[in-house]
Design a protein that fits this description.
The chain is α/β, with parallel strands linked by helices and 249 residues long. It is 47% helix and 10% strand. A hairpin with a 5-residue loop joins strand 4 and strand 5.
Length: 249
């Protein structure tokens, strides 16, 4: 597909117009990172000027970086834990955000042995999807023909809980896979998976792996690439195949 020169990227020739726009966005966001970050901070402070937490520090409407650094202290998770617990217990007032908290994202728990709760809003899913959409345009610069086959990607959900106030608490990828952003995503030839949504969303990790592996083997002639979000996931898939292929497939 011919791409307009106006959309060309310094990173290289894009594969299509959609890729060109994504690469242009990357270029714009990374060319002037200082001003971009200052603008993002100003938008966050303006939008959340009336939240309970920020009002404690008397910003008086200031949105510049220097005022923010001089008045807002460096904190740890434990410093915000009382506010987070209030939200988890059902307090819907503007404590940390003017937008309603839609759910909690959980940490892996590897640093302190206990999962931390990170409040998030529905609008964050849009930003997350935008970040995910930038992967293939960059890969297409270096590996041509990625739209000609399917991807055998091992994607999994993990367990989730509800807080006393009724909000979900779950890992970030589980949140994304269970959202409409993923389940009703538009067709994209660069992101066609062998695994159906039902296999990815299966809560039983063994059954999910079995089904995804089976679908990949059944469509092996179309598999162009193999992967997982984390390298450990791919290693787990290889080990699963070693342990079970003789008696199962």
């Amino acid at each position: 597909m011919a791409v307009d020169n106006a959309l060309s990227s310094p990173l290289g020739p894009p594969a299509c117009e959609k890729d060109a726009k994504a690469l242009q966005f990357i270029e714009e966001m990374t060319r002037n990172t200082d001003s971009v970050q200052e603008d993002v901070l100003a938008k966050i402070l303006t939008q959340n000027a009336e939240v309970e937490y920020l009002k404690r520090f008397d910003l008086d409407g200031a949105t510049d970086r220097e005022t923010f650094k001089s008045k807002i202290p460096m904190i740890r998770y434990e410093d915000l834990q009382p506010e987070i617990q209030r939200i988890a217990n059902g307090d819907r007032s503007s404590i940390l955000s003017t937008h309603p908290i839609s759910e909690f994202l959980t940490s892996s728990g590897t640093s302190a042995g206990e999962r931390k709760l990170m409040p998030t809003i529905k609008q964050e899913l849009d930003r997350r999807q935008l970040l995910y959409s930038l992967l293939m345009p960059v890969m297409n610069l270096y590996v041509p023909g990625l739209d000609k086959g399917k991807g055998l990607y091992f994607l999994f959900v993990k367990s989730e809980t509800r807080t006393p106030g009724g909000l979900f608490a779950r890992p970030v990828l589980t949140s994304y896979y269970k959202s409409d952003h993923f389940k009703t995503r538009p067709y994209d030839p660069y992101n066609v998976y062998t695994s159906p949504n039902e296999a990815i969303l299966c809560a039983d990790s063994f059954q999910s792996m079995y089904t995804q592996m089976l679908c990949g083997l059944l469509e092996r002639e179309q598999v162009l690439r193999v992967g997982a979000v984390f390298a450990s996931g791919l290693l787990r898939a290889i080990r699963f195949l070693q342990l079970h292929w003789l008696g199962t497939f």
